[in-house]
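Problem: given the chain below (534 residues), write out its structure.
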Amino acid sequence: MDETYDFIVVGAGSAGCALAARLSEDGRHTVLLLEAGGSDRRFLVQMPMGYGKIYHDARVNWKYTSEPVPGLDGARSYWPRGKVLGGSSSINAMVYVRGHPKDFDNWRVPGWDWASVGPVYRRMEDWAGDDPARGRGGPLSVTDTGGTVHPLCDTYLDAAVEAGLGLAADYNGASMEGAALYQITTRGGWRASAARSYLRPARRRPNLRILTGAQAERVEIADGRATGVRYRRGGAARVARARREVILSGGAVNSPHLLMLSGIGPGDALNAAGIGVVRDAPGTGRNLQDHLGYDHLYRATVPTMNQMLRPWHGKLREGVRFLLTRTGPLALSLNQAGGFVTVSDGTDGPDVQLYFSPVSYTRAPAGTRPLMSPDPFPGFLLGFNPCRPTSRGHLALRPDDPAATPEIHPNYLDTGYDRRMMIAGTRLVRRLAGTAAFGGVIDRRIVPGPDDDGDAAILAHVRKAAWTVFHPCGTCRMGTDAASVVDERLRVRGVAGLRVADASIFPAIPSGNTNAPAIMVGERASDLILEDAR
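Solution.
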C-alpha cells in the first residue's frame, strides 16, 4: 500500500481531529491521521458520566504520573490523558470554556489575539442561543445545562449572589465574570468529543485515512526538512511519507517528546540519551503549565447525587433513564456549576475558577473518581483553581530509555503568587460555604477538617490535597522570539515541513478548561496550513 500523503497528522486528539477533518474537507489533499490508541466506540466513552469509569483504563488512557512534586510534599500527580480517537475530549469532564479574550491578547503573537481566534470559536460551535458572539451550526455541539442539573446547583448560585460574586449570563459570551452553570460538549445526551464531532462525519472521505494503534516513533527528517513519520503498528515498523507537511498533535506530553525523539530539543539532553541532534532547541519540553485545584467536601442535610447513584436501585434507575431518554445525571458532567471570579486587584479578567459538584466520594482511593460509587451519605464538593498560575514545569527524557514516557516535572506551587492564590481561593470557598444559602444545606465540613484556618494551615493542607485539573499545556511554546519552539504559523523553528498544533503551543495557559482552546488550535492550524499550501 502506498504510504505517501500530502499531510500526516500525528495524534487524533482534540486538535488533531479538527485539523485532519478540515485539511481533508475540500478533497484536494490526502491526509493520514495516526493515533496510538484505539476506537472511541465504547459505551463508557460515549456516555458522558462514563468518564469516571475510564479514569484509570489503560485501553483509552495514557495514565501518566509525574515525578515527585516538591510543592505537593513530594507526592506524585496522576495525569489521565486520552489514548483513543478524540484524545482527552473522549475522557474529560466535557466543560466548555473558550477562555478570556485577554488570555489571547496577552499571548502577543500575531494572528492569535482575540480578534483572530474569536471567529474560529464561532465557526466551530453549535450553540442553541441566538447571541451573535456565539456560533451556530458548527461541528462541535455545546449544551446549555439549565433545567437539567441537580437542584443544589441553584443553592450554589444563590450563595454566589449572596457572597457578591454575581452571575454570568454566558461566561463564553460578553462577560466571563460571575457564577454559572457549566456548558458541556454533548449532543442528544451523548458525549460530543472531537472524534464524534469532526472525524465521524469525515471518515468516509477517500482522501482521509485514519490509522489507530499506530505509535509514532520519530519524525523522519532529511536535509533540514520533515519527510515523513516512522511508526509502529501491529508489531511492525513502518514509514509514511509526507509530500507537504507533518503536523504533531499529540498534546503537551507527546508532541515535545516526539520532537526530542526526532532530534529536536535540548542538545545536551539529546546527546545524553544517544539521540542525534537535528536542531538544538532548548525550549522543547519547557514552559509546562497546568491548573492546580483544591476541593472542600461537605456533608449535606439534603439529598445529593450520592443518593441517586450510590444504591443499586439508583444505579439501575438512572441507567435505564439514560438508555431510554438520554437524560439524567449520566448525561451530564460531574462539574455542574462553577464560574469565574476576581479575587485580586489589577488583573486582566477573572483569576479564580470555581467548581460545584453535587456528589462526594471520601472513601475513594487517592487519585480516583468513582462517580458511580459515591459516599453513602449526602455530600458535595466545592472547589477552585487559580486561572493563570505562574509556576513553570518541564519534561525531560529518561537517558536510560528515551522512548519511555518522559519525566514530568509540574513544579506546582513553585511561586509565591501561586501559593497566595491557593490561600485566597480557599478563603473564597469558605466565604461561599458561610452564606445563608448554604447554611440551610451544610451539616459540616469533612475535608479539610476543623483545623486552624490561618494561612500556614491552609497552605499545608493544600500541599497535601491539591490535585491537577488535567490542563497541561505550553511545552512547545509558540512565539515570535528565537527561543520559541514554533512560530506564529505553528512551524517548528529550524525544520521545514513540520508543525505542532495542540495545547502544547500555548504561550500561557488560558483562564479555564483547555479542551475548547485545543480544538480551536486545530481549526486555526488548518487555516494556516491551507493558506501556505496554495
